[in-house]
Design the sequence.
């Protein structure tokens, strides 16, 4: 859908620019490695992953939602509810699926080998929200397709979910300063940078917490919520202890990383 692509591009670049400017004006932490190298790597992955998905997958979640609507597939297409309730239920259900997927990618060793690339970023900023291995992206799309087939969400709900997920991923990876009192209330409705930063801690028990990307409720309900990092937000180390050499975190090396024997 051309309209959907335009909407997603506008929100993607809009969020990227806003958070990037915010990072310059009010950064949360001092950066430790070359921003130029990291930005090239992380943004190049956006282009590569988009091309891989378009080439390999015959249908994407929005297209499948349209097909499901036409053919009456999925739970929400079998029940009579006001449209706004269906949209809300669909967005929340899809977000819970992404939470479960994230947990799965941490605790299944074969999937962690793919996902750990996301955690090797030695700094955290708006571009880290786009740092994923192409194989992980393809698997993630297949999981979304399965969820769309099961739930039968309205097309508009899938568009809203995809746009919000990408925007919040860039937001909560942002190196931006939000006053503690504001953050305390904000994280009741959305995953904030201070909440998600803990997930990128070099300490494994912190890495395996705060899995939410968009809605913060699942971590609290499922017992994976951690309010603050042990070493504080400015003192904590970002990344993985096995991958600390920035020279080894170039784009070609990242593609090969799932096949490297290091693991956490």
Sequence:
């Amino acid at each position: 859908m051309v309209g959907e692509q335009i909407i997603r591009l506008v929100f993607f670049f809009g969020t990227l620019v806003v958070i990037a400017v915010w990072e310059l004006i009010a950064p949360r932490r001092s950066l430790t490695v070359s921003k130029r190298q990291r930005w090239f790597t992380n943004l190049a992955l956006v282009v590569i992953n988009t091309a891989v998905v378009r080439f390999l997958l015959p249908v994407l979640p929005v297209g499948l939602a349209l097909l499901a609507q036409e053919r009456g597939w999925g739970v929400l297409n079998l029940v009579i509810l006001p449209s706004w309730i269906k949209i809300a239920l669909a967005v929340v259900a899809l977000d819970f699926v992404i939470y479960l997927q994230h947990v799965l990618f941490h605790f299944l060793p074969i999937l962690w080998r793919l996902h750990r690339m996301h955690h090797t970023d030695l700094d955290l900023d708006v571009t880290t929200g786009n740092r994923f291995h192409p194989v992980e992206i393809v698997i993630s799309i297949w999981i979304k397709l399965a969820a769309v087939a099961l739930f039968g969400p309205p097309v508009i709900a899938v568009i809203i979910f995809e746009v919000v997920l990408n925007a919040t991923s860039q937001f909560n990876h942002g190196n931006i300063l939000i006053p503690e009192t504001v953050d305390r209330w904000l994280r009741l409705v959305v995953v904030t940078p201070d909440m998600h930063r803990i997930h990128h801690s070099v300490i494994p028990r912190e890495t395996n917490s705060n899995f939410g990307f968009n809605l913060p409720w699942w971590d609290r309900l499922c017992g994976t919520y951690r309010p603050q990092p042990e070493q504080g937000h400015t003192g904590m180390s970002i990344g993985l202890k096995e991958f600390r050499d920035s020279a080894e975190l170039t784009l070609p090396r990242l593609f090969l990383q799932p096949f490297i024997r290091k693991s956490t």
Notes: The CA atoms of residues 103 and 211 lie 7 Å apart.
